[in-house]
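Let us practice reading a record.
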Amino acid sequence: MVQHMTVIDENKNEIQLRIFAECTCGNLAFILENPSGRRFTRCSFCGKEYLEKNGGNMNFLFSIMNRSQYEACMPYSDKIDGVEVCVDKVDREYLDLLHKYHFKILQFHMPDLVEDDLLVEINKFKKTLLVLHPPDKNVAKMSREIISKTHHSVTLENLNPTNGKKRLDLDGVCKVVKKVKGLGLCWDIGHENQTRYNYSTPITPQNVHLHDFNHTDHQPFYYGNVDYRKAMEYLTKTGYKGNVVVEFAFEYLHGDTMGEKIQEYLKQISMIRGST
């Protein structure tokens, strides 16, 4: 398959075209980037500018697990909508970096039990969104405690079974969200589809995690076990306007260097954004 081509626009400028979706006219559509850096989406054959209707109201975030990944992504901040960073302890240098150099959107993934000293530091950031993992017990109590101690929006993520251990799934998380005032849902579509085929949720999410899986989760969309098109169709149909964290582990992305992996990450996001 052709990955890119060069064409001349009406002003005789060269434009690089990169395939990323199929238009309703039956031809391949492209993302266009001209020399001035303007970026827009349309079908290069019929000219229809329809692709943004799916992803136009959503931001697509990178998932960042550590400081080195964050630093590697900094030069690409003009191409990345935002990041969701995983924090599990007070790392002064990392937190200082997040304060000093941040992306357009910064939110926090806090999968471990949140200690008070870490929450104090996170509260120094302007209001954003926190993603929590449900503990083995007392989920509602934990959620209420975190909500009472922070000005951030707090969400609870549905989990998949791991190492033979059952964890709180979408149905269980939704029950807690309905019971706890001020708690939102982080709908992890990848986790949900590891246990059952499902692309809908009884509660409107405040945040979304999207990834494929192949024996393990947080895979890029190389395997087709999660249908990102169905996910985008549902989010668009229900009017979702929040963030979609494209939750890939960098080690699973194609590429020999970190720069190549970041480019692959961006390519995958373009594919998702342009899905119909």
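A brief commentary: The chain has two domains: 4-42, 52-273.
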